[in-house]
Amino acid sequence: MTREELADPFHRLLEGACPPAVVRAIESGGDWGDLWAEIEASGYLDALVPEASGGAGLTLAEIAPLLMALGRHAVPLPVADTMIARALIARTGGERPDGPIVLVAGAASAPVAFAAVAVHALIEQGGVLRLIRLNDCARAPSGDPGSLAELVGWPEAPGATGWPASGVDLAALIAIARAAAMAGAGDRLLEMTVAYANERIQFGKPIGKQQALQQQLAVMAEQVVAMRMAAEIGCAAGLEGNAAGAAVAKRIASAAAVIVADTAHAVHGAIGISEEYDLQLYTRRLRQWRLAGGGETYWAQRLGRLRLAAASLTSVDFVRTHITATGTA
Amino acid sequence: MFESLSPTQLPAADEALREPVRTLIAEAVAHLPLDRRARSWQGFDAALSRKLGQAGFLGLTLPKRYGGAERGPFARFVIVEELLAAGAPVAAHWIADRQSAPLILNYGNEDQRQFYLPRICRGEAFFCIGMSEPGSGSDLASVRTRAERTDHGWRLNGQKIWTTNAPHSDYMIALVRTSGTAEDRQSGLSQLIVDLKAPGITIRPIVDLTGDAHFAEVFFDNVELGEDALIGTEGQGWKQVTAELAFERSGPERIYSSMVLIDAWIAHVAAMGRLDGATAALAGRMTAEIATLRAMSLAVTGLLAAGQSPVVEASLVKDLGTTFEQAVPAWIGDDLAAHPDEPVSPDLHRTIAYLGQIAPSFSLRGGTREILRGIIARGLGLR
């Protein structure tokens, strides 16, 4: 199966089931059950689950286009998180719960993305993975307008039994999922912004004919492509979540997010600031996901410590040997 | 958008070239101080180029019947990456191997291929590119150097400038006007191979702000060239140059110009035992950008390997890559200046100074930042 054969039906599903009106409704506290049911019925949630356990047995690298599609369509549910959680749960032979699952690493005091639309959290603390019902936690809105993130207070003594993370770096997997979603949202913003620049007439011609805008849009395009390539590097690390690959993905995506979102707004002018115009669905997400699970400095530091621990290697050798490559020759 | 740039892996057979070339390079750079290695593809060492040729590391993309290795762009990527990472002085063969040879293979006639390509593969024929003129920089289509038909070939008059490596080169592939006037823009241009030993040619090196003289002015005063000087089709020079620039703009040399400095800085902070957040953040930032840009450059290499001419994609990677390699000396200089009590080797100081001063050229050579962004904008459908 080619990447297109895998991703195209997913795009069509999301185009139909998750148009901007549905995104807005769920962000306003509306019911998300129908959208979840459609995605569940499609089977994509088990993409990473081994075939022996009834899944599609795909790798993280293979589903990179799906993770990007989620950002591209601003899907207001933790689909990537649930895909990863189901695969990790299947490895233990444990019973997987129904409904959306969010991933959490550490005793996070930062807002947990998608917590408002999830039933469970798969949380890693001290090398132990636990599945916790969010209804058993203290929850408060993040205060971020339209955000589905929540501040979550985890139970002091979680009742759920845990299992050893055994090398799975959940923080890295979260970073990869967010970076891929950012790459998808960034690509959508680039398309919208180029289209707008070609339509909007000022001084008697499309504003996209102005060199000043062309140069900005070229930079935006470079950043969007860099986000996508970095997300692919992250996904290539696989389900263990290689920290170096994840760090590349999230460092690049988070640093690019500001440039991409700001350029989209600069080109759109006032219309882009309005609620009813769709631009904000994607730029708001870029800003949230930039910080979610660690921003550009956090991940640069993690990568930098790995790099300094291998100081005898050249940078080319470090990249070749520590940051997994993938793709076809 | 730009989905054509997708993850691309180096084939194992090409990856296998890395160790043998590394041994050869280690010998060549062993005696060079860091700031000489920072010259990299501006550093001239004809003996090294001949050694690389003898060992079969030049002309990797060319057919065997012309002395090449018939391996393709991925093999070349590995060799080029190793040369740049080590800061090997590769200027002698650089342009010939990168773009003149593919140009001659694609557009040359059989005699031209037989004459030039085996010499390039042996590291014995060095090329420069005659594009810029005093009045034609970014506006390349306005070139005025003119070649007129004679009974025996061509008569060349005019001037090129900022020609990298001209003082050391055997040949120049020049973009010249063969019909019409500068107002005719892209039509009426042709490419000629000029033997730089021909009578009527004066080459005057230009000293740069660091004291090096890697580029030059080249004057043509009634230079008589044979019929065989024309490469490709008369009047198709613009199209040929555009295809050539995809080769010129796509390689890791648009990312790695500050690589020896990065590695020397890593060694320095490791020796100092620094583990603080700011140091780690800078090390991580540079590593993340190298990893991403390398993946993008490999993706462009994949397009070249598939026989495409990825003009827009190459421009995109070059602009992002040169922005990075240009920023590195400033970042590292600032870092060391923030640690005034640390002993820093004179070598490292000289390298930061050299790269900081020369770095503006990274986004000038091979097409300016503004021109590249214009090409990207066209690729986006804005022009």
TrEMBL record, chain A:
GO terms for molecular function: acyl-CoA dehydrogenase activity; flavin adenine dinucleotide binding. Pfam families: Acyl-CoA_dh_1. Gene3D superfamilies: Acyl-CoA dehydrogenase/oxidase, N-terminal domain (1.10.540.10), Butyryl-CoA Dehydrogenase, subunit A, domain 3 (1.20.140.10). Belongs to the acyl-CoA dehydrogenase family. Its cofactor is FAD. The chain crosses the membrane at residues 101-123. It comes from Edaphosphingomonas laterariae. InterPro entries: AcylCo_DH-like_C (IPR036250), AcylCo_DH/oxidase_C (IPR009075), AcylCoA_DH/ox_N_sf (IPR037069), AcylCoA_DH/oxidase_NM_dom_sf (IPR009100). This is Acyl-CoA dehydrogenase, N-terminal domain. Keywords: FAD, Flavoprotein, Membrane, Oxidoreductase, Transmembrane, Transmembrane helix. It comes from the Bacteria. Residues 176-295 form the Acyl-CoA dehydrogenase/oxidase C-terminal domain.
Automatic annotation (TrEMBL), chain B:
Its cofactor is FAD. GO terms for molecular function: acyl-CoA dehydrogenase activity; flavin adenine dinucleotide binding. The keyword NAD does not apply. Residues 128-223 form the Acyl-CoA oxidase/dehydrogenase middle domain. GO terms for cellular component: plasma membrane. Residues 14-124 form the Acyl-CoA dehydrogenase/oxidase N-terminal domain. Pfam families: Acyl-CoA_dh_M, Acyl-CoA_dh_N. InterPro entries: Acyl-CoA_DH_CS, Acyl-CoA_Oxase/DH_mid-dom, Acyl-CoA_Oxase/DH_mid-dom_sf, AcylCoA_DH/ox_N, AcylCoA_DH/ox_N_sf, AcylCoA_DH/oxidase_NM_dom_sf, Mycobact_Acyl-CoA_DH. The keyword Flavoprotein applies. It comes from the Bacteria. Keywords: FAD, Flavoprotein, Oxidoreductase. This is Acyl-CoA dehydrogenase. It comes from Edaphosphingomonas laterariae.
